[in-house]
Amino acid sequence: MAYVELYKDKLKKNYQFLDNVFKENDIAWAVVSKLLCGNEKFLKEVIDLGTKEICDSRISNLETIKKLDESVQTVYIKPPAKRSIPRLVKYADASFNTEYKTIKWISDEAVKQNKKHKVIIMIELGDLREGVMGDHLMDFYESVFNLPNIEVTGIGANLNCLYGVMPSEDKLVQLSLYEQLIEAKFNRKIPWVTGGTSVVIPLIFRKQIPDGINHFRVGETLFFGLDLFTQEVVPGMEGDVFKLYSEIIEITEKPKIPSGYMETNPSGETFEINEDDYGKTSYRAILDIGLLDVSEDFLIPEDDSIEITGASSDMLIVDLGGSSEKYKVGDLVSFKLKYMGALGIFNSDYIEKRVV
After folding, report:
1. Spatial CB neighbours of 281, under 8 Å, sequence gap ≥ 6
2. What domain range is 173 assigned to?
3. Long-range contacts, stretch 136-139, CB < 8 angstroms, 24+ apart
4. How far apart are CA 354 and CA 356, in angstroms?
5. Per its record, what are the GO molecular function terms (predicted)?
6. Helix H or strand E segment including 42
């Protein structure tokens, strides 16, 4: 059975590195846990690091966090669906919002539950995912700040999440100016300007974060140690907090070229034949993991001599080259994971999760 390991010493090292960076720059930060897909063992490791605020995009995951530690502030980081609002108010202390009608529904439910719900207003800065258009922000804020049991505690933005628009000092200055305009017009304090995600962290190292940006939400850099501008591991951080192990269930020397009439496979792929491979063979290994668990595009074999050649729903095929002496049936092959690969693995009920 395939399994994935979380190395708690490496996770702790990355957390402490980031915590020091943010403290040095007088920035508060929260952990984004959506990658962990609500896995209780992994969430406990995150809570044990000492974080007091965790963000997620699934209410069930926030429920798990509250069961593990009621004192952790939970933040729902996408605009809520109407039918989820009763559970949202119960398990999320705060939520990202962009629609007045939704905030009104949250207000009504918060009154019913006798709770105060915090709201972060998301602003559109160019990536065209969620966000209030800047021209409408003042009217939007005025319409929501007097709703009962609603406390507007921040404004924020997301970049690089849909079209890949990268953050810049100018865009963050723009976000900070919106906070200043709100405070000047309404004489009300907005405590948090949450302009930072993992992709913004490199701007801290370049001294390009405006003073007004005082809150970050970090997932990918915590778990993968990546500078998302260079796609390289940040010096002082660990890039392999997680590792996937999959067992070899077959090794056979086979032709490099399939034989027979070819059409699209069940994944809708059509393969092109490399004529240089006619008459050649190689040793092919089949591993006990497949597309049901993860796309092969997000797996990085630790052994550089292994080449991933394809996958079906339940099996991954790798090319071992001209010799099979290095591996035998029953051996484990290890992989580093890209972010979306880890997301698939953690969302699979068929992959065992271990803490090391």
Report:
1. 253, 254, 255, 256
2. 8-233
3. 137/178, 137/181, 137/182, 138/181, 138/182, 138/185
4. 6
5. alanine racemase activity; pyridoxal phosphate binding
6. helix 40-48
By C-alpha distance, which of 209, 181, 180 is closest to 197? 209
| Residue in the block written with tokens 């930060």 | 29
Query: What are the pLDDT digits (tens) for 167-176?
Result: 999 999 999 9
Cα dihedral value 86, 90, 91, 93, nearest 10:
110
Per the structure block, which two tokens stand in for 293?
A: 């668990």
Which positions ≥6 away from 343 have C-beta within 8 Å?
34, 35, 37
End-to-end distance of the chain based on CA atoms, in angstroms? 17
Assess whether 34 carries a catalytic annotation. Answer: yes
254: domain CATH number is 2.40.30
Q: What share of the chain is helix, strand, coil (3-state, %, to 5)?
A: 35, 25, 40
Task: Name the stretches of the chain with pLDDT < 50.
Answer: none
Domain containing 169 — which CATH number?
3.20.20.10
Report the amino acid identity of residue 300: I
126 and 39, same domain (yes or no)? yes
| Structural domains counted in the chain | 2
User: Are 271 and 165 part of one and the same domain?
Assistant: no
38, part of any domain: yes
138: its two tokens: 């003042």
The structure tokens 């090794």 sit at 251
Among residues 124, 103, 135, the alpha carbon closest in space to that of 195 is found at: 124
Q: Name the catalytic one among 12, 13, 34, 90.
A: 34
Indicate whether 274 and 203 sit together in one domain.
no
Q: What is the pLDDT of residues 279-297, one digit of tens each?
A: 789 999 999 999 999 999 9
Q: Based on the domain organization, do 227 and 262 belong to the same domain?
A: no
Kindly list the distances between the CA atom of residue 313 and the CA atoms of 36, 251, 292, in Å, as whole numbers in the listed order. Answer: 22, 19, 5
Q: Are 233 and 333 in contact (CB under 8 A)?
A: no
Q: Give pLDDT, residue 62.
A: 98
Q: Give CA–CA dist 58/334, Å, rounded.
A: 29
**Residue 2: inside a domain:** no
Q: Is residue 99 helix, strand or coil?
A: coil
